[in-house]
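=== Given protein ===
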Amino acid sequence: MKVGILAVQGDFEAHAATLARVGVEHVFVRTPRDLEDVDAVILPGGESTTQWKFLVEEGLEESLREFGVRGGPMFGTCAGAILLARDVRNPKQQSLGLADISVIRNAYGRQLASEVRHGFTAISAEPIEMVFIRAPIIECVGRDVEVLAKSEGKPVLIQQGPLLIATFHPELTSSTTVHEYFLRMARHHLAKERVSSNSVAQPAVSAGPVEPR
């Protein structure tokens, strides 16, 4: 498996280091061509407005949206959650609109604010460390969205089909739990896609005319 990491701005190097620790090949994505041979994509934290402006200017907006519409596995953290959301508020911002969630930017104030929490998730028997840095809040989720973890009553880790979204930064911890979950999820989805594409209906074979008795 090869994972593309959007490398415009933000903590893309930390995601790369995490993937290296679990032995997964990665490439940095800065142009539409960089997406051509990747199986999954990570949209890292950072400044969502700056990232969105770059995506539009470089034509990556369309390429990433097409990748997601085709069912390509994508993992967004913090700013990446904003880029994937259907609805972005405070202030309103354009996005890829692939995940049926509504997010509030700057929910903890515009100043740089960070906090480390520990919480239980549906993906691990043990609590995981959650690093929040000026995190957005997921205000509401659609019917097809599965909430995998909450913190202070709000979803902080969600899945919708081949999309995984975290409002915290799992790449800034020593744990690889969330990334490994994403990789398993991506491999499962890709395997299903391969089976589906290989399952071509075969025409019925006639045994010839039936002799009357």
About this structure: Residues 177-198 form the longest helix (22 residues).
